[in-house]
Amino acid sequence: MSTGTERPTPTGVRAPGRAAIAQGRLRTDRWWLPQLATVAGLLAFICYSTWRAFDGTHYYAAPYVSPFYSPCLAANCTDIRGGADWALFGDWWRLSPALIVLIFPLGFRVTCYYYRKAYYRSVWLAPPACAVAEPHTRYTGETRLPLILQNLHRYFFYVAVPFAAILTYDAALGFRSPAGEWGHAGLGSFVLLANIALIWAYTLSCHSCRHIVGGRLKHFSKHPLRYRMWQAVSRLNARHMLLAWCSLASVGLADLYVYLVASGAFADPRFF
User: Fold this and answer.
1) Is 84 left (phi over 0), alpha (psi -120 to 50) or beta?
2) Where in the chain are the domains?
3) What is the rounded CA–CA span in Å between residue 128 and residue 43?
4) pLDDT digits 0-9 by tens, 43-61
């Protein structure tokens, strides 16, 4: 008979069947340093990208366009290559054009397997680190809202590929003079080139890409081309964490460079 005073059965690290360890952690090293660095890095990018997304100015310095604002889908992009790339959002859109496009690369990164691990550990402390007990009493994984939406990652990947192709086009246009003549290059040309190289490396090293290339195959010997592609993606996948951070830094620095040139902080050095 229930008396109504029974305590609920603990879950998570205190669940029955788990090792009964009284200490909150058994580690004596500075296990919190990587988590602190992760929080600092993510917070810095979030603050900067939020400011630039709502700023809505200084995102085009011929022939360079900020990766935060490309493709420009609003009619108020009057200074990019003579007007909006595709004015799908007409004159009624009064906000920054970046708010239209950033949701897609943002969704790709937020649901990325590496970034999930990074902010689960550093922000939600689930768990903070290996051999460190998490403070949560319940664990439901990614089976409920909002974390069940993480399963959309593969679909964000499909959108991330054409966005990377558009930024590749922008990087190619960077090798023109402000007057539109090909065969010229400035410092910004190589900034955009380095950025798109890192974005492609990060995108193709994605776990979803690796599964698309080599998943659902029982015999690699019968698919030699896909096997070689899978090997190449797997080599990139082993560096997915490094590529995630490098591409995150490069896209922010590319936007900052365009902003400084467009705002007149300095002139873009031209090499040839």
Assistant:
1) beta
2) 27-262
3) 17
4) 999 999 999 999 999 999 9
